[in-house]
Input
Amino acid sequence: MQVQGRRLLVNGQVFTVKGVNYSPIPVGSTGGAPQAGCLNGADWWTDRPAYIADFPLIRQMGANTIRTYAALNDTSPSNLAQVRAMLDKAYENGLYVIMGYYPTHTGAIDAAFQASAQAGFLAGVNAYKDHPAVLMWAFGNEQNIDNGQDPAWYPFVNTVLGLSKAADPNHPAMSVEGECPQCTTPTTYNIGSVARSANDASMTNMDLWGMTAYRGTSFNGLFATLAAQTSKPLLLSEFGKDAFKDSVQAEDAAMQVRYLSAQWNEISASLSAQDASRPLIGAIWFEWTDEWWKADNGTTRVCTTHDSPVQFTRSSDTDDPDYNEEWFGLTAIRATDAISNPSGTARRLRPSYTTLQTLWAGASASGAAASASLLNGTVRNYPNPFRVGAEGTKFVIFTGRAAKVDIRLYDAGGQFVASLTQDAASAERVELNWDGKVSGGAYASPGLYVARIEAKAAGAATQTQFRRVVAVR
Output
């Protein structure tokens, strides 16, 4: 991977990032430390069943990239193994990963902060630089809103990125800027700022700039403005719109589609893959799933209800200027409490999913057709093998439309042993658990079983898949 002018090259070919920010926090968890009955869901790569089910669907949408926020922060041996397993699965599904390091938003860039952040970031770079799924490194997210107010910030970032390039010359490195017009001290991007030492002459080790932007259906000339301030490529690291319409106090999926379509059309007109003089190497939708933990009650996070307080406002947005951070997902999530169900949360695909599938060049006609099928992708179950009597195994099914899902389990001799069923109300993720018990109530004997998975819907041909299930003691 390398930057050439305003373009990103992957394996020598011009590459356009079409991505989703991926941080699927289940209901009942927060994006940070546990509090007030909420679990810590930030380390999503420990939830292997969730990303194994999600990644094929993300790829089928036409995405080629996922962006992480803090995958580099913990380099303990146990965490390294889990992150690498996640990277393996991303690579298997044709997805590149932007590996993020999340420094503390401290506002004071003293020697202790610099030493800790530098060591942490470089440890992550060295841990994963050999993995083929890595696309680039990202040091920080929207740090300009606080850390970037310290004159030491951008010289420090340039130093850190220089060290990462020395350790790994094969992957670009960036930092991500944000804007906050509603902050007590309104903040915008420092990209190209001479006063902040964020200009090209100062940021010699910065390969490209990332930025987050929420401005409504239009970016209001943002890309041209930033292109005049830096010759480096730009990556729109976050864009999107929540699916909650404040004027009616209800979900409005069509509104989200309307924003998405207008935003992508503007992004597309600025892509460097089409014209080397254009500034954008791509864009990343925020985000894959809704985040029920984002709102609080004034003191602590409320992680078990889908709340809709206004969390920021964009006065330039004349359609729906109030933004609700719990509703940005391409997929909605069900109220399945992570405390009782730690292996993922059921998904419901919003129309914005299929809209992106149509807009992105990577989405084929076969992919679009598959999104309307009854069984969307290969059904899997986890764990497999499973320890009968000590744990169950969970089947994860994605439906492309409303359907009835039936699973019938047979032993190696073809004898029926158990059945599971659930109705999917729309295109969504369905989870069915087999506790290992047979129809009489006793636990199944160790051995090989075959699951026959059927999806049925009025006016459609029944679709069937088979899955081997192994029970052990």
